[in-house]
């Protein structure tokens, strides 16, 4: 009986035992490794989803920054603050950390001592530079997993093995990471193995215990499954909270374009119909889609055919793995167009297949309007700056050019695109020490001014006024440099001063002429009286002579023998000549009354020559009387209707310029010489004034009549003499004036004057 029981037991237990042994063997050889792989994959996916949730939150903040709703600094601060508080896991101690691509640790809830430091060289006890590996994985693949040793949560104890997932957030250069301890997974797997071992041993001993263990193990597995589902629900709730807090409209699409999920912003915008809104209010994700139609066929887009086409085309590109971004215009219910910035990003599975598509949209109408207004203001400001006659140069706080107007280009020949980013002293070298002055104005925050700086602009020697205005705005440190060419003004001031001196000198000369004229007239009159009393045979003269013991005949004999009467004639002749010169000076210096009358052009020219004969310049060491004048005048020349003083001024100016040139630069021939010819051709009188001086080259000849052009040294001439002469002949008298010259062979000025004074009528009408 006993043996049968044993046999029966053997028959019952042996197959069961063998079955259990085989089952246990198969379990440990196949099921346990598979279970271990499943647990690890599940935890990896959990890590990946948690990090992606944080990345999505960061992307939302970046979109707010791009939309101008918050600053980049505020967004980063808010992100770090939020991430430090985030926890998940069974014990609520799983956390996230942030470091940047340079290795700086930005946030770590359990290692505050490392925050703000560079951890590139941080190593775990095995010598692994874990942060360096994180950065390498992100640079290569954008994300990845890494094993290393780390302290146990917040206990600060001995480091243990940990598996972490990191993913880069490119817009900010951040790396987001989170991890789980290998010990947790190993303990879980070890616990399962221990339970299976105990169960197997129990089954070998007691089949009832085997069943109980199987049932117990089933309940244990179910409990773990429930825990995992709960963790997933918590993760989904966290994701949903972050998802709904985003300001932009966000939708999750399937691969057919149907909406599986949308956030509160999209619901508020009216993208979903009433039924979909009701379903969304329960926080559910509908795997069949919220609508039977793809997103571009929703009624929300019905009035925007162009937007529909762009949406569908962008969706097709996203299915190929591309990330697309574009702007569409949508006609809203109030009849206004709103501009929506749309982006579509693919969500890939572990095999790189597109499983979902994230669609994001934000209303950028106000931002576009602000940009257009800002662009309009920039264009207007640019036009104002470029239309200014001053050189305007903007520089940053380093002294580099960031603004260059058209006048600066005209002056320097440097285009704005070439000048920008150059040091201001190199871009505009005409003003010495400009860079130092700009630096002083910026550092001292005060306006610097300097007037009448001598410089060269292009090929012109001129003067400039310089003003440097520092910019003290928080985001616009630098300065504006204004340079005004005041060369013409300086010349005008000098001319005005010279004119005032000449006016004063003219008045003084007129007064002196009057003062000289009076005694000169008395002298001539007295000489004539003396001659009459010494030579006339009158009763009074005879009586006076007899009283003196002489006769009139004896007196005349004495006067003739000593040539006293000849000397008296010389006195009269010299006095008359001096009186004539004084009268000419008074007439030339007197303000012109604009009297046009028929005049002998020969006499006008001769009067000018007589005035020039009295010209002597001690400084230039020339005397006009040493210059030979050859006259070639047509006989019986018809009178010319002209303004006498103006024509004299022209001839005198030509003679003085020629005399100075011959005195300073030499002449050809044995002595300096003028050849003055006057002819008539038709109804014109032609006056030629030729000298045998140094002449001039073609470049000077072309500019000789330009205002302010002079070949004399500074302070020796204004450059207005010939330009005024040209104006008198060509404008006032409707004539013409030319110059011919060859270097070393002298110069010939030719004047054509209408004889009929046709310009007189024009001046009288004016």
Automatic annotation (TrEMBL):
<keyword id="KW-0547">Nucleotide-binding</keyword>
<keyword id="KW-0902">Two-component regulatory system</keyword>
<dbReference type="InterPro" id="IPR005467">
    <property type="entry name" value="His_kinase_dom"/>
</dbReference>
<dbReference type="InterPro" id="IPR036890">
    <property type="entry name" value="HATPase_C_sf"/>
</dbReference>
<dbReference type="Pfam" id="PF13426">
    <property type="entry name" value="PAS_9"/>
</dbReference>
<keyword id="KW-0418">Kinase</keyword>
<keyword id="KW-0067">ATP-binding</keyword>
<keyword id="KW-0808">Transferase</keyword>
<dbReference type="Pfam" id="PF02518">
    <property type="entry name" value="HATPase_c"/>
</dbReference>
<keyword id="KW-1133">Transmembrane helix</keyword>
<dbReference type="InterPro" id="IPR013767">
    <property type="entry name" value="PAS_fold"/>
</dbReference>
<feature type="domain" description="PAS">
    <location>
        <begin position="377"/>
        <end position="420"/>
    </location>
</feature>
<feature type="domain" description="Histidine kinase">
    <location>
        <begin position="511"/>
        <end position="757"/>
    </location>
</feature>
<keyword id="KW-1003">Cell membrane</keyword>
<dbReference type="InterPro" id="IPR035965">
    <property type="entry name" value="PAS-like_dom_sf"/>
</dbReference>
<feature type="domain" description="PAC">
    <location>
        <begin position="324"/>
        <end position="376"/>
    </location>
</feature>
<dbReference type="InterPro" id="IPR004358">
    <property type="entry name" value="Sig_transdc_His_kin-like_C"/>
</dbReference>
<dbReference type="GO" id="GO:0005524">
    <property type="term" value="F:ATP binding"/>
</dbReference>
<dbReference type="Pfam" id="PF00989">
    <property type="entry name" value="PAS"/>
</dbReference>
<dbReference type="InterPro" id="IPR036097">
    <property type="entry name" value="HisK_dim/P_sf"/>
</dbReference>
<dbReference type="InterPro" id="IPR000700">
    <property type="entry name" value="PAS-assoc_C"/>
</dbReference>
<dbReference type="GO" id="GO:0006355">
    <property type="term" value="P:regulation of DNA-templated transcription"/>
</dbReference>
<feature type="transmembrane region" description="Helical">
    <location>
        <begin position="6"/>
        <end position="28"/>
    </location>
</feature>
<dbReference type="GO" id="GO:0005886">
    <property type="term" value="C:plasma membrane"/>
</dbReference>
<dbReference type="InterPro" id="IPR003594">
    <property type="entry name" value="HATPase_dom"/>
</dbReference>
<dbReference type="InterPro" id="IPR003661">
    <property type="entry name" value="HisK_dim/P_dom"/>
</dbReference>
<protein>
    <recommendedName>
        <fullName>histidine kinase</fullName>
        <ecNumber>2.7.13.3</ecNumber>
    </recommendedName>
</protein>
<keyword id="KW-0472">Membrane</keyword>
<dbReference type="InterPro" id="IPR033480">
    <property type="entry name" value="sCache_2"/>
</dbReference>
<dbReference type="GO" id="GO:0000155">
    <property type="term" value="F:phosphorelay sensor kinase activity"/>
</dbReference>
<dbReference type="InterPro" id="IPR001610">
    <property type="entry name" value="PAC"/>
</dbReference>
<dbReference type="InterPro" id="IPR000014">
    <property type="entry name" value="PAS"/>
</dbReference>
<keyword id="KW-0812">Transmembrane</keyword>
<keyword id="KW-0597">Phosphoprotein</keyword>
<dbReference type="Pfam" id="PF17200">
    <property type="entry name" value="sCache_2"/>
</dbReference>
């Amino acid at each position: 009986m006993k043996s049968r029981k044993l046999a029966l037991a053997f028959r019952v237990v042996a197959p069961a035992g063998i079955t259990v042994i085989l089952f246990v063997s198969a379990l440990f050889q196949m099921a346990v490794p598979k279970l271990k792989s499943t647990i690890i994959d599940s935890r990896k996916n959990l890590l990946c989803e948690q990090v992606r949730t944080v990345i999505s939150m960061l992307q939302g903040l970046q979109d707010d920054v791009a939309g101008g709703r918050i600053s980049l600094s505020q967004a980063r601060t808010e992100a770090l603050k939020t991430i430090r508080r985030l926890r998940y896991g069974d014990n609520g101690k799983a956390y996230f950390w942030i470091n940047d691509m340079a290795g700086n640790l930005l946030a770590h809830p359990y290692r505050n001592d490392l925050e703000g430091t560079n951890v590139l060289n941080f190593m775990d006890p095995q010598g692994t530079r874990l942060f360096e590996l994180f950065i390498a994985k992100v640079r290569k693949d954008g994300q990845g997993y890494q094993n290393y040793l780390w302290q146990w949560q917040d206990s600060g104890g001995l480091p243990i093995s940990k598996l972490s997932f990191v993913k880069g957030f490119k817009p900010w250069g951040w790396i987001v990471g989170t991890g789980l301890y290998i010990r947790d997974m190993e303990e879980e797997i070890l616990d399962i193995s221990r339970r299976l071992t105990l169960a197997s041993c129990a089954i070998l001993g007691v089949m009832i215990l085997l069943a109980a263990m199987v049932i117990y193990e089933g309940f244990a597995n179910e409990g773990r499954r429930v825990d995992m589902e709960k963790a997933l629900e918590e993760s989904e709730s966290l994701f949903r909270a972050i998802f709904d807090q985003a300001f932009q409209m966000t939708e999750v699409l399937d691969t057919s374009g149907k909406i599986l999920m949308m956030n509160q912003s999209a619901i508020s915008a009216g993208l979903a119909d009433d039924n979909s809104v009701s379903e969304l209010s329960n926080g559910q994700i509908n795997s069949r889609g919220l609508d039977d139609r793809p997103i571009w066929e929703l009624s929300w887009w019905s009035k925007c055919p162009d937007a529909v086409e762009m949406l569908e085309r962008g969706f097709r590109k996203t299915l190929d793995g591309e990330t697309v971004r574009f702007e569409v215009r949508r006609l809203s219910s109030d009849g206004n167009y709103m501009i929506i910035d749309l982006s579509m990003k693919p969500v890939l599975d572990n095999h790189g297949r597109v499983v979902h598509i994230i669609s994001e949209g934000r209303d950028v109408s106000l931002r576009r309007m602000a940009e257009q207004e800002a662009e309009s203001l920039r264009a207007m400001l640019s036009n104002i700056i470029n239309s200014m006659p001053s050189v305007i140069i903007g520089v940053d706080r380093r002294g580099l050019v960031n603004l260059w107007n058209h006048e600066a280009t005209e002056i320097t020949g440097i285009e704005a695109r070439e000048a920008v980013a150059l040091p201001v002293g190199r871009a505009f070298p005409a003003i010495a020490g400009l860079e130092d002055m700009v630096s002083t104005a910026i550092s001292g925050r005060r306006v610097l001014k300097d007037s009448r700086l001598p410089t060269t602009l292009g090929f012109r020697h001129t003067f400039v006024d310089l003003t440097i205005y520092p910019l003290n705005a928080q985001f616009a440190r630098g300065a504006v440099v204004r340079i005004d060419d005041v060369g013409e003004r300086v010349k005008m001031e000098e001319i005005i001063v010279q004119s005032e001196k000449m006016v004063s000198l003219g008045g003084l000369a007129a007064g002196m002429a009057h003062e000289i004229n009076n005694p000169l007239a008395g002298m001539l009159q007295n000489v004539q009286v003396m001659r009459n009393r010494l030579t006339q045979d009158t009763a009074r003269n005879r009586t006076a002579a007899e009283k003196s013991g002489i006769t009139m005949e004896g007196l005349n004999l004495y006067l003739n023998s000593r040539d006293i009467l000849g000397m008296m004639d010389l006195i009269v002749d010299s006095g008359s000549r001096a009186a004539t010169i004084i009268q000419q000076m008074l007439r030339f210096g007197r303000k012109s009354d604009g009297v046009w009358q028929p005049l002998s052009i020969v006499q006008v020219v001769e009067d000018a020559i007589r005035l020039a004969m009295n010209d002597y310049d001690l400084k230039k060491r020339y005397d006009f009387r040493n210059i030979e004048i050859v006259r070639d005048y047509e006989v019986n020349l018809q009178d010319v209707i002209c303004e006498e003083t103006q024509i004299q001024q022209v001839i005198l100016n030509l003679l003085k310029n020629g005399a100075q040139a011959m005195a300073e630069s030499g002449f050809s021939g044995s002595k300096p010489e003028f050849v003055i010819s006057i002819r008539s051709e038709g109804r014109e009188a032609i006056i030629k004034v030729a000298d045998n001086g140094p002449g001039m080259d073609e470049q000077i000849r072309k500019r000789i009549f330009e205002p302010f052009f002079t070949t004399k040294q500074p302070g020796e001439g204004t450059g207005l003499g010939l330009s005024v002469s040209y104006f008198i002949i060509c404008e006032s008298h409707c004539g013409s004036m030319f110059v011919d010259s060859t270097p070393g062979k002298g110069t010939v000025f030719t004047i054509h004057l209408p004889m009929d004074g046709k310009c007189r009528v024009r001046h009288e009408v004016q």
